[in-house]
Amino acid sequence: MSFDPRYGEAVPVGNAITRITANNPGSFTGAGTNTYLIGEERLMLLDPGPDLPEHLALIGKAIRGRPVSHILVTHSHRDHIEGLQAVRDMTGAPVVAEGPARLSRTLHPSEVDPRPGYADRLFPIDHVVSDGETISNGEVSVTAVTTPGHAPDHVAFAYGDDFFSGDHVMGWSTTVVSPPEGSMRAYVASLEKIMPMGHTRYLPGHGDMIDEPARTVSGIRSHRLMRERAILQRLQAGDRAISDIVANLYSGIDRSLYDAAAMSVLAHLEMLYEQGRVFAEGYGKSARWRPSGV
User: Fold this and answer.
1) In this structure, is the dihedral angle defined by the CA atoms of residues 75, 79, 80 and 81, taken in order, positive or negative?
2) Tell me: the pLDDT tens digits for 234-267?
3) DSSP string across 83-96
4) Angle between the 53-63 and 84-91 helix axes, to the nearest 10 degrees?
């Protein structure tokens, strides 16, 4: 999917929204992390982004001395909030988030968090927002929509017909769901939650705007269900280890993405286990899996 991040520019994208894309491209960030300014005279800022001097300087330049009433945080992954303290110092605005970083489930015996340090579990929160709560500064009003799955603390924000989807629905790739932080069951439920909301445009944490969100979300849900069926078929064919399932379903995958694929398979297997459709011997990526009835 083509996307010009226009590094070094504050890009107006309509409806009194400005996008600033950080120059932090990578296998999990696409072209970079998007920061948004919302409003004309009195602003809200969504996702400060990484702690890069040029990115933070551009945020300050784009604010142009206007008051910032709130700093909205979609979730606690560091590429979205590394620059939070600098932006907080710059604006004096309170931080609004769903809550601190955490895991979606407890760790199994001998299991370790596969991505320690990827989330900031101690970032400052001035206001813990709840699902359906509206935050307003007199000019801008946004409504929080909790969307766990990619992370337990993930929250999107509705702004009129626009929807800041964070990493729940991205404009460049499918979302990583990586246990024990991520939960596929929660992710699919969150997709089903936002499908009927009727927003006409998504502004994601990575990549370009999504102008057909209903079609996009439906496609993501269908892809997840298709992947679930394919995993069940591999189990029925005799695969028992996640490594075997990945080798068969992701042939030709770049080695740098192997771990992400393995964690996605694990997320699907954990959801199937919760539904009683598969059994496991052991825990996590090292478990042996089989379909129920076998």
Assistant:
1) positive
2) 999 999 999 999 999 998 888 878 888 999 999 9
3) THHHHHHHH-PPEE
4) 30
